[in-house]
Design a protein that fits this description.
Blueprint (H helix, E strand, L loop, with lengths): L4 E10 L2 E11 L4 E5 L6 H8 L7 E6 L2 E2 L4 H6 L1 E4 L11 H11 L4 H14 L15 H13 L5 E5 L7 H15 L3 E5 L3 H7 L2 E6 L2 E6 L1 H5 L5 H8 L8
Parallel strand pairs: 3-8, 3-9, 6-7, 7-8
Antiparallel strand pairs: 1-2, 1-4, 4-5, 9-10
Length: about 240
């Protein structure tokens, strides 16, 4: 299997609005794809289709060879997803939430206990481990959301604004974590922080009005522009519909 993520002719319509228009691309193991675009470009809609939260109007998306629409359980077993905002059960603690998710993912006994301890240490959640999630800061909530995405060590990670709400030190830690995991996984990172693309991504794709307008390494996207911000502005006009 040459790619862990395969997208072919993906399209999503909301009534008369076409939010995603015939996207096709693939992501092999070892690649971190920065998924870029202005607000309303179709990024979140695309990721919701890749993860099975939205059914496409047309086209297909596969995770590790399993069609996300026709074989959702098989596909999602290989998939970790951090959605924008990372909705969490507010009355639960990181310990109880991640224990619940570990059970859903098939962890039991000592293996479950060990994995939860690893996640608490990796994401620096020990100080709030038994504190209700509704009382946590945005940064800690984001770390809990990332912990659930990587809990089962999936082959594919789809991360929507993974460093949103984190301070500079925490952002650095998350970026290092992504780089550490990258060799064994296919990772898509959607972000508005273009320095993040330079920091962790081996490839960058820009979509605008539901279509791919650029695809290459960060250096190729930058081209003759002074930086990625300037290249991004040249490729997009900031107008769009559904994100």
């Amino acid at each position: 299997m040459s790619a862990l993520i395969e997208v072919d002719g993906l399209r999503k319509e909301f009534g008369s609005l076409c939010a995603v228009d015939d996207l096709s691309f693939s992501v092999p193991r070892g690649e971190v794809l920065g998924f870029l675009g202005p607000n309303g470009a179709g990024k979140s809609t695309t990721m919701k289709m890749l993860t099975g939260f939205l059914a496409p109007t047309a086209g297909t998306a596969s995770i590790c060879g399993a069609d996300i629409t026709r074989q959702p359980i098989v596909a999602k077993a290989h998939l970790g997803y951090l959605p924008e905002g990372a909705p969490l059960y507010p009355e639960m603690t990181p310990a109880t939430l991640l224990s619940f998710i570990a059970g859903v993912r098939g962890y039991t006994g000592e293996k479950k206990t060990q994995r939860l301890a690893e996640l608490a240490a990796l994401m620096h959640l020990e100080p709030v481990w038994k504190q209700p999630i509704e009382t946590l800061s945005k940064g800690f909530k984001r770390r809990v959301g990332l912990a659930q995405a990587i809990l089962h060590d999936p082959d594919v990670l789809i991360l929507d604004e993974p460093t949103d709400g984190l301070d500079p030190n925490q952002k650095h830690e998350v970026r290092q974590l992504v780089q550490t995991m990258a060799e064994q996984k296919a990772i898509i990172v959607s972000t508005h922080i273009l320095e993040e693309v330079d920091a962790v991504c081996t490839r960058a794709m820009v979509i605008h009005r539901g279509k791919i307008v650029a695809d290459g390494t960060p250096a190729e996207l930058r081209g003759e522009h002074a930086n990625l911000d300037a290249a991004f502005r040249a490729l997009t006009d900031g107008k769009g519909g559904v994100s």
